[in-house]
Amino acid sequence: MKKLSIVMACMLFLLSNVLLAQNKYVGAKNCKMCHMAKGKAYPVWAASKHAKAFETLKTEAALKIAKEKGIADPSTDAKCVKCHSTAFGIDAKLNAGITKEEGVSCETCHGAGSAYKAPAIMRNHDACVTNGLINPTEKLCLKCHNSESPTFKGFNFATASAKIAHKNPK
Ligand code: HEC
Ligand code: HEC
Ligand code: HEC
Ligand code: HEC
To answer: Which protein residues are within 6 Å of ligand 4, measured from CB?
Structure first.
């Protein structure tokens, strides 16, 4: 009996991991309706450089950097796109509407949103976290803001997060 319950516990643990791992990327358009007027998270993000990060890879400046590294098209090469687009590199099965054009999107910083975006969950912080919501810290920013970036000039978390600050819709 005891052995059986241990086996059951292990199976439940594995199952819950599988379920959590299946949170899908829904794209910023699925956050917009609730994060527009109140808190303005969406418009603040949409006006930020993060929202334009994919477009940046099509500029003259990007082509010049890429050429020096022997990269033909920075907007398709993993060496560039991996930091410039949330949708790039995610498993196709986990893509529920995010496009590469939206650049560094909400779900890079807050986690894939399919499970936490329901209104009842959004209003309950603990339920959000259980369903995959991330409250990002400096560690997350440093995944991209580091010397691997060809244009890196240093990163100050306090100044940088003030530049992108957006609020709770409450
Ligand atoms: C149906 C409306 C709705 C949708 C859709 C929605 N949100 Fe929210 N969200 C809210 C509300 C309302 C709150 C404020 C909850 C509170 O504090 O009472 C919130 C809070 C949050 C918070 C702070 C949560 C916390 O507890 O720290 C984050 C981050 C967030 N939303 C991100 C997102 C992202 C990213 C998406 C899209 C993937 C999204 N939301 C989609 C309504 C929504
Ligand atoms: C997935 C990679 C990625 C992550 C994670 C990331 N960023 Fe960025 N960030 C970028 C890219 C790429 C740009 C440049 C976009 C452009 O100019 O097109 C950028 C630009 C910025 C800028 C504008 C810089 C300027 O000179 O005005 C600020 C501020 C910033 N990020 C802050 C943050 C903060 C704070 C975090 C963590 C909460 C963070 N970023 C996480 C990739 C990322
Ligand atoms: C490790 C993550 C990372 C990689 C890889 C990366 N970038 Fe970026 N990129 C960033 C970040 C973060 C910024 C914001 C400025 C900074 O800190 O470098 C940025 C900014 C830029 C900018 C805007 C520069 C400016 O001064 O406004 C261009 C252009 C650019 N990247 C092109 C490229 C190209 C081309 C590649 C591939 C050869 C590339 N990036 C690879 C993270 C990355
Ligand atoms: C580059 C990373 C980054 C991106 C992109 C981003 N956020 Fe945030 N977000 C943060 C950080 C950092 C905080 C402040 C962390 C905290 O207070 O928990 C924050 C806070 C929030 C909050 C308020 C939480 C609170 O408790 O006050 C909401 C709501 C939110 N984000 C929604 C969004 C939505 C919606 C999008 C896309 C339209 C988005 N964020 C895009 C990094 C990001």
So the answer is: 28, 31, 35, 39, 41-42, 45, 50, 104-106, 108-110, 135-136, 161, 164, 166-168
